[in-house]
Amino acid sequence: MADTTHFSKHVRDFLHQHGSRATLARLKIFKELARCDAEYFELEYINQKLLERNEVMASSTVHKTLRQLCLMGLLVDEKTAGGDTRYKKTQLFQCFESTIAG
Fold first, then answer.
1. What sign does the CA torsion over 19, 25, 29, 31 have?
2. Which of 68, 79, 9 is nearest to 33 (CA)?
3. Residue 80 bridge partners (DSSP)
4. What is the pLDDT of residue 6?
5. Which residues make Cβ contacts (< 8 Å) with residue 31, sequence separation at least 6?
6. What is the SS3 assignment for 20-89?
7. Residues 73, 92: contact at Cβ < 8 Å?
8. DSSP character for 6?
9. Phi/psi at 101 (5° precision)
10. Which residues make Cβ contacts (< 8 Å) with residue 87, sequence separation at least 6?
11. For residue 2, what are the CA distances in angstroms to 27, 78, 93?
């Protein structure tokens, strides 16, 4: 079972500086984001990938985490023409990707 020690010290420090803890839920979401090759993705995509890995997590937890990562500058969000929100990893997130255990 994964634990939060899989976050690099750099990532843990960054989260702490932004008022967040390196929780197990964040670790799982970070891992899915790091695995995502799509330029843009939606909340449902992350939820589906977590479900495929038998990771039980409320959609609201994923949504809240994605919003927090946007506020930290790790993701950007935008509305589609249909009114849905899609996300994109920033260059800052990409700097952390190699430090997130696969």
1. positive
2. 68
3. none
4. 59
5. 2, 100, 101, 102
6. CCCCHHHHHHHHHHHHCCCCCEEHHHHHHHHHHCCCCCCHHHHHHHHHHHHHCCCEEEEECCCCCEEEEE
7. yes
8. G
9. -60, 135
10. 40, 41, 42, 43, 66, 70, 75, 76, 77
11. 8, 31, 21
Other beta carbons less than 10 A from residue 93's beta carbon = 20
With CA atoms as reference, report the closest residue to 11 among 30, 29, 28, 39.
30
Most confident of 1-5, 24-28, 29-33, 49-53: 49-53
pTM: 0.85
- Look up tokens 């589906």; give the residue: 48
Kindly give, in sequence order, each residue whose CB lies less than 8 Å from that of residue 81, ignoring residues fewer than 6 positions away.
Answer: none
pLDDT in tens, 11-30: 788 888 999 888 888 888 98
Looking at residue 2, the DSSP 8-state letter turns out to be -
Q: How far apart are CA 9 and CA 55, in angstroms?
A: 24
60 alpha carbon, distance to own chain's centre = 13
